[in-house]
Amino acid sequence: MIKKNKKIFICATEQSGDNIGYNIIYELLKLDNSIIFDGVGGCKMSPFLQNRYYSLKDFNSMGIIEIIFSLKKYIKMISMLITKIISNNYDLIITVDSPDFNYPLAKKLKKLKYKNKIIQIVAPSVWAWRGYRAKNFSLVFDELLVLFKFEKKYFQKYNLKTTFIGHPIYYINKTNYVQKSKNLNIVFMPGSRLSELNKLLPYFDLAYKYLLNNLFNVTIFIPTLPHLENKINNFIKDWKIDTIVSSNILEIENNFKNINKALVCSGTASLEIAKRNIPQLVIYKLNIVTEFIVKLFVKIKYANIINIIENKMIIPELTNSKLNKKKFTEEFTNLLSDEEAAIKQIESINIVLKEVTVNTPPYSLAANLINSNF
Description:
Blueprint: E1 7-12, H1 15-31, E2 36-40, E3 49-54, H2 64-69, H3 71-88, E4 92-96, H4 99-111, E5 117-121, H5 133-140, E6 143-146, H6 152-156, E7 162-164, E8 184-189, H7 194-214, E9 218-223, H8 226-235, E10 242-246, H9 249-256, E11 261-265, H10 268-275, E12 280-284, H11 288-297, H12 305-310, E13 317-319, H13 325-337, H14 339-353, H15 362-371
Parallel strand pairs: 1-2, 1-4, 2-3, 4-5, 5-6, 6-7, 8-9, 8-11, 9-10, 11-12, 12-13
Helix pairs in contact: 1-15, 3-4, 7-13
């Protein structure tokens, strides 16, 4: 009898999910190099997908209002993916992050009596808002792998098999903080979605103008993704400060060695900067209507996960209506000039980071757990 190759459908609609998906595929292939992968992913997962049904470019929406306007498109996409999943009868479904897309996908599959297991990687932030999702997830997913230890309790009470695998920042090499010297090497991280760039680039331009008018010997580094590189290069084409824009992984790692300050879009990037021991200022902006709705329902005071875990402002953040020209200039000035605050930020961060890492490599742990489901 000819042995049938295992087939996995994997779905990641955001850059952080694409990174996680790529690494888990890599680890799974080390366990069994005959596994066939199809699904949804970005440029990192793409080489491993025999059939890629959608890319990250198809998922630019961010925020309640933007998602509502894209709802019809997403419903059509889910219907198409359901058809592919049913017809190919995958041995396993893996969904990564993006709960507002992956939960409806999994729910529809369960409604159609799909028998094979569905595993979600990265929990929805039920501790922040929409706590009912913990129960909903338990009804459609067979297993959940979480990045933060404190998340387990929210899902285990509904008998959803939940495993803490640790955060992928495990793989980032911790460096010593490069204290203020004659040269300022600052990283700008404006986000991985087009919608984030459109809202935040004016503030990065404001930062550039401040640096141009107030400091000498400055280098700006902007790590980005291939599909955003042209937009960023066009945006900075008239800048007079030496600015490096790169989507090359080796170049990015090499440039990070000299960075001593960071201006960061809130999200995974901020946690990565924290692991690198670089003092940072976090910024973020939602659609004004989305912000109003979020204020009514969100139970937490902060946007940054480090601040959320400790319930205090460890990393300075300016979000939504708090992000304006005056406050931004004040906080950006502090980031560049207050060396005592920078060192205190790094010390506090390192205490918190112990709560989000494990001794076992997260991707290896995840791959072994996933492989045990066959």
